[in-house]
From TrEMBL, chain A:
One of its GO terms (biological process) is amino acid transport. This is Branched-chain amino acid ABC transporter permease. Keywords: Amino-acid transport, Cell membrane, Membrane, Transmembrane, Transmembrane helix, Transport. Its main location: membrane. GO terms for molecular function: transmembrane transporter activity. CDD domains: TM_PBP1_LivH_like. One of its GO terms (cellular component) is plasma membrane. It holds the Pfam family BPD_transp_2.
From TrEMBL, chain B:
Residues 32-372 form the Leucine-binding protein domain. Keywords: Amino-acid transport, Signal, Transport. GO terms for biological process: amino acid transport. Belongs to the leucine-binding protein family. CDD domains: PBP1_SBP-like (cd06327). This is ABC transporter substrate-binding protein. InterPro entries: BCAA_transport (IPR051010), Leu-bd (IPR028081), Peripla_BP_I (IPR028082), TAT_signal (IPR006311). Gene3D superfamilies: 3.40.50.2300. Pfam families: Peripla_BP_6 (PF13458).
């Protein structure tokens, strides 16, 4: 078998594919962040906690109500999205007139509280959640063993990302949203209920995080820290892509997943830092991010 | 200025009272042993240490009974940061008069605290950290390493794997003191039995996705993939190993450190068939069951693993030594208290009869367990079947091989 940079080609292809799968999670989470930041101007630090709540919600539905994976995939985002709406109404809506920093601090505080409550209730070792029987098993691709579930994650993430992008860029509703971010007062003058639209947008962003959580539950340990491990990387993705740029966050999510996957082959110890190195370089060269408008 | 008798008496008695008031807590402090439980209350190692360790130490205080001195238990969270851990240890000893520091999971923090306690001549009873260096090059007259260590895990789990024909290994290692020590000790075992280590990959602590490392391990064609990590890292790696069909081509997974709380988090479906080593299991015998029944009401759904049992047994044995030598002497000289602990045989419900060696290593048998399949388990936390027992004298690294400066002569 041929070698590429001293690494056997099959191994390299395998890592590219795995990078794409991890990129799917980054893309899904950074998409939610980008939507919320783009339309609400809130840096949603609670996004990781909401991702975790999505996974826990799937577990609770199964353990307490016997509701399986597929229903959880629909119900969990609705339930967690609703908690997001409540949060927005109670707290976040008070901060739109203030500096970004206040929103960041508030959501960071909320994330710590939410994670603390879950840790007290469920401990830190995590809870078991099985891969649904329809998606268990794997394909032997020759160069690697490809679990069917991972393939499903990539497909689901691509569909979600594409759908969100289409809604915001190509529909009338999306046009209202984008207009409201440019000039809320004017859009309101045309008879659009802007505060409600903003509330629903936050709920939608949170629901995206929750779907990510449900998709992650069968493959990652369902524990209270699962979101905070991921969220820092996802923030870096958003910064690299350009704050608020939807397409940017999707593309950057997948691309950085691949970069990280390759780093795990060539220099595994650096795999946790490589994304931040890229972030630093991007910030120096293009402070608005790769796809951002300065 | 004129004083009459009445005001003199009043002033005098106030002075006397003031003197008394300030003297009595000091008198009490001289007669109070302070145990500080320093562990992870909020992170990945919370369930294997955390509040359950605190409850077990409190149980030990209760079981030790009254011997004419008071015992106070303090708790702090070291957040898995060596600087935070050693700062708390310093503050506790300098400002709060803490005599003993207990538990301390995370080998990096454990080694940092080891230095502080030795410098201040207090007592360090480590239960949950794994690194065998605590009784090796870094051994200290103030330290007892109670429950387990990397050498003992390597011998029990690693040895069983090699014996079953696993002579080529690939390691997936947590990139800090603990992972390095566990990988080193296991590699030594594998090599000593004519096995070879084909490759190793190091991942940061708190890694979420192991697929990349597992695929590397798979393509190395090693017979055994050794997981030299702990807690959530192990859970994620085991879960994903099953997903990627690691064991389907005959590769074996060696989980070098797993606690019963991790098995609980994995679920029997994912964990069945794995082998792991612990020195305590709640369902091992009548005494361990009795101990578990006693502490269970204070544990909020968790069950004690070997690390928690170690906190209980270490605190109990220390309090026996204090009762023997007197609280004042124990407080004055930590090394003397540890020496007294070493001179006395240990006896408790969790580990039975045992002893502490000159290098600070507590010795007791180690048990190799296999995780039950879901249909074999009779109820909640019925997870292990016993495969083999290594007697106390063989379970831990021989003192002469540890390179501990205290026993070199």
């Amino acid at each position: 078998m041929d070698d590429i940079f001293g690494i056997p080609a099959p191994l390299l292809f395998g890592q590219l594919l795995l990078g794409l799968i991890n990129g799917a999670f980054y893309a899904m989470l950074s998409l939610g962040l980008a939507v919320i930041f783009g339309l609400l101007n809130i840096v949603n630090m609670a996004h990781g906690a909401q991702f975790m709540m999505g996974a826990f919600c799937a577990w609770m539905l199964l353990a307490w109500a016997g509701i399986g994976y597929w229903w959880a995939l629909i119900l969990s985002p609705i339930i967690i999205g609703f908690t997001g709406i409540v949060l927005e109404k109670l707290f976040i809506s008070k901060l739109y007139k203030l500096d970004h920093l206040y929103g960041l601090l508030l959501t960071f505080g909320l994330a710590l509280i939410i994670e603390g409550v879950f840790r007290n209730e469920f401990g830190s070792s995590g809870l078991p959640y099985r891969i649904p029987p329809e998606l268990s098993g794997a394909w032997d691709l020759g160069f690697m063993f490809m679990p069917i579930y991972r393939g499903w994650v990539v497909v689901a993430a691509l569909i979600l990302c594409l759908a969100t992008w289409l809604i915001i860029e190509k529909t009338r509703l999306g046009a209202y949203l984008r207009a409201a971010t440019e000039n809320a007062a004017l859009v309101q003058a045309f008879g659009v209920n802007v505060p409600r639209m903003v509330t629903l947008t936050y709920g939608f962003g949170v629901a995206l995080a929750a779907i990510g959580g449900v998709l992650a539950a069968p493959i990652y340990s369902v524990n209270p820290q699962m979101g905070s491990n991921l969220i820092i990387v996802v923030f870096a993705v958003v910064v690299i892509g350009g704050m608020g740029s939807i397409l940017g966050s999707i593309l950057t999510g997948f691309a950085l997943g691949i970069v990280e996957g390759l780093t795990k082959v060539f220099w595994p110890e650096a795999s946790a830092t490589v994304i931040f190195v890229i972030m630093a370089i991007v910030l120096l060269a293009r402070p608005a991010g790769l796809f951002g408008r300065a | 200025m004129q004083f009459d008798r009445r005001s003199l008496i009043a002033g005098g008695s106030a002075l006397a009272l003031g003197g008394l008031a300030s003297r009595s807590p000091r008198a009490q402090a001289a007669n109070t042993i302070k145990l500080g439980v320093l562990n992870d209350q909020s992170g990945v190692y919370r369930d294997i240490s955390g509040p359950t360790s605190v409850a077990c130490v409190r149980q030990a205080v209760q079981d030790a009974g009254s011997h004419g001195f008071n015992v106070e238990v303090l708790v702090a969270d070291h957040q898995n940061k060596p600087d935070v851990g050693s700062n708390i240890a310093r503050q506790w000893i300098d400002r709060d008069g803490v005599d003993v520091i207990l538990d301390v999971p995370n080998s990096a923090v454990a080694l940092a605290v080891n230095g502080v306690v030795r410098e201040k001549n207090k007592v360090y009873l480590n239960s949950t950290a794994a690194t065998a260096d605590l009784t090796g090059p870094q051994c200290s007259p103030n330290t007892v390493h109670w429950t387990y260590d990397t050498w003992m895990l390597a011998r029990s789990t690693g040895g069983a794997m090699v014996k079953a024909g696993g002579d080529s290994w690939f390691f997936i290692t947590a990139d800090y003191a603990f992972g390095h020590a566990l990988e080193r000790d296991t590699s030594n075992f594998v090599k000593a039995q004519n096995g070879k280590v084909i490759g190793t990959v190091r991942h940061p602590l708190g890694n979420t996705d192991f697929s990349s490392f597992l695929v590397q391990a798979q393509s190395s064609r090693a017979k055994v993939v050794g997981l030299a990590n702990a807690g959530a890292d192990t859970i994620n790696a085991v879960k994903q190993a099953a997903e990627f069909g690691l064991t389907r081509r005959g590769t074996k997974l060696a989980v070098l450190l797993m606690f019963i709380n991790d098995v609980h988090g994995l679920g029997l479906q994912a964990a069945q068939g794995l082998v792991c080593t612990e020195t305590f299991y709640w369902d091992l015998n009548d005494r361990t069951r009795a101990f578990t029944a006693k502490v269970k009401p204070h544990l909020a759904g968790n069950l004690p693993s070997m690390s928690h049992a170690g906190c209980y047994a270490a605190a109990l044995h220390y309090l026996k030594a204090v009762a023997d030598m007197g609280a004042a002497a124990a407080k004055a000289d930590g090394a003397a208290a540890v020496a007294r602990m070493k001179a006395m045989p240990t006896e408790d419900d969790c580990f039975g009869a045992g002893s502490i060696r000159a290098d600070g290593r507590k010795i007791h048998p180690s048990y190799l367990f296999e995780v039950k399949a879901p249909n074999e388990s009779k109820g909640a936390w019925d997870y292990y079947k016993l495969l083999q027992t290594t007697p106390a004298e063989d379970a831990f690294r021989p003192m002469a091989e540890g390179a501990c400066p205290m026993v070199r002569s």
